[in-house]
Every structure is written in C-alpha cells, then in structure tokens.
Design brief:
Helix content: under 10%
Number of strands: 15
Distance between the termini: 42 Å
Strand content: 25-35%
Oligomer: single chain
Number of helices: 4
Structural class: mainly beta
Radius of gyration: 18 Å
C-alpha cells in the first residue's frame, strides 16, 4: 500500500532550514536544554461524539496539555499572544484530539480541501507512530473546518517528499466557534477543534497501539497578524519579524522544536497510551 501511494508524490511548500539551525537542534538535544514533552493518553470506554463540543462529559477524564509556547522555545523567548492547549483520548478504533484556541478575531477563507491550510490561521497535528522519522502524518484544519492531510516520507531537510494524495480514511472532525466568523466588528472568544483519527490509518507505515505503547506527536498553531479593512481580514507585517508573507506568521507549539520547522520529528513530544483512569473504572 505504501509503495503504491509513493507513486503520487508531489512537492509541498517546505520550510527552509539552515545548517546552523540543524546544529542548534542537535546541540539543544544533546545538552538537554530542550526536552520533548510527554502526555499520558487514557483509554475511554465511551466513544467520543465528534461535534466540536470539547467540554462534554466524555472529555472530563482527559487532562489538558501545557499551554503552547513559541516554536523556537527559549531561543526566542516570546509568549504566544493567545492561549492554545489540547487533550487526548483513545479507544480500540480512534485517537481522539480536542484543541482549544483562544482568538479575538476568528477568520478563515480557504474552503477547498487539500489547500495549503496554514495560509489561514490553523491547527496542525503531526504523528509518527513508530518514532523513526519516516512516513509520518501531518493534518491541518482552519476555523471553517477545511482540512489537509498528507504523509511525509521523511523530513524535508533530509530529502523528504510529501504524499499529498494520501488520505486519512475514516477521519472525523468538527469545529465550533465561540464568536462571529469572518466579522471584525466585534471581539470573539475562541474556536475549538475535535478530531477522531482512525488508528489503522496512523499505523499504516508502522507502529502499534495498546497500553504501554509510545508514539511521537506534536501540535502546531499558525497565527497571522491581521487587520479588519471593513470587509475582510488582511494580513499585516509580523510585529516581531516585520515579515508579511510566508515566514511572517507566528508558530506556537505544544513541545518546542528549537527552530521554525515542524519537520524535526526527533523534537516532537511523546504520547503514552494508558488504560482507563482509575476514577472511570469504579
């Protein structure tokens, strides 16, 4: 199956990473200054209804992650302007992910599936079930619920290519907005994402599921500086970099990467599969 899908390889806009950045990542890992985060993901005995309602009772047993930080970590000590956090559950069929993204201006304009979703503000998931840095999954979604899924043969700076025609068959997703979408005349609160990813799709290229198994995973939020022009949101230069186009966005992540590049799988966090929490067994 994987070999067959490799026939449909196509390029996706890569992140440009310098040799100096690669050295920085290696140095930080070796020194222990960047330690990938861990999340204990409990098994749920009740399937999660994917409707965007992430505060339902079915999510109560799942702890929230730490709030997201700047992608570079301490290299660029900048606190994200808005809070982001995630929680996870699993059962024999799905990995469930819930994300809460605080946002005073909720917007999204991309409506075609498989668009480059991070040209809008978005939420992103990266998963490598067997932790070898090969054939890992990337998923992006905006506030409209428009999404993009792809598989990477390996990281871009090691010659990796994107299998853009690969799809996560059976994926379920929902977005709920707390505010007015694409209307800059008022202040919004947040938008929430709820996803159920079939485990058999994630383990297609390797890895196992079950209590005691460990995967590599990370989450990213791309956030653009914008202004309301009376009709729509327009991107403006980033307050820190002065850049307006690609490279001018903020990148906030769960587990810091050390560089502005999500495609460093060795820097992703650890997802530990655990049984049901004790409280739910009583």
């Amino acid at each position: 199956m994987i070999v067959k899908k490799l026939l449909c390889l196509m390029a996706v806009v890569p992140t440009i990473v310098s040799a100096a950045d690669n050295d920085f990542v290696a140095d930080k890992k070796e020194s222990g200054e960047i330690v990938p985060k861990s999340y204990v993901c409990h098994k749920t005995e009740t399937p999660v209804t994917i409707d965007g309602q992430i505060y339902d009772k079915e999510w109560e047993s799942a702890p929230w992650s730490d709030y997201f930080v700047d992608i570079e970590g301490e290299k660029r000590d900048l606190k994200p302007r808005f809070d982001t956090r995630v929680k996870m559950l699993w059962d024999d069929t799905y990995l469930y992910i819930a994300a809460e993204l605080k946002e005073p201006d909720i917007w999204g304009y991309l409506t075609e599936r498989e668009s480059v979703i991070y040209f809008d503000n978005d939420f992103e998931v990266f998963v490598d079930p067997d932790g070898d840095g090969l054939h890992y999954m990337e998923y992006e979604i905006n506030a409209l619920g428009t999404d993009w899924d792809l598989m990477l043969t390996k990281q871009y700076n090691k010659g990796g290519r994107a299998i853009d025609c690969w799809s996560i068959n059976g994926l379920k997703k929902a977005v709920k907005t707390y505010g007015s979408l694409n209307d800059g005349r008022d202040e919004d609160d947040k938008w929430c994402v709820e996803i159920a990813i079939p485990l058999d799709a994630l383990t297609e290229a390797g890895g196992k599921t079950g209590v005691g198994e460990c995967w590599r995973i990370n989450f990213s939020r791309v956030e653009w500086e914008t202004k309301w022009d009376g009709e729509k949101y327009v991107k403006i230069p980033n307050r820190y970099t002065g850049k307006e186009g690609v490279g001018g966005e903020d990148n906030w992540v769960w587990s810091p990467q050390g560089v502005i590049n999500m495609h460093e799988p060795s820097m992703w966090g650890f997802l530990h599969f655990a049984g049901a929490p004790e409280a739910s067994k009583k």
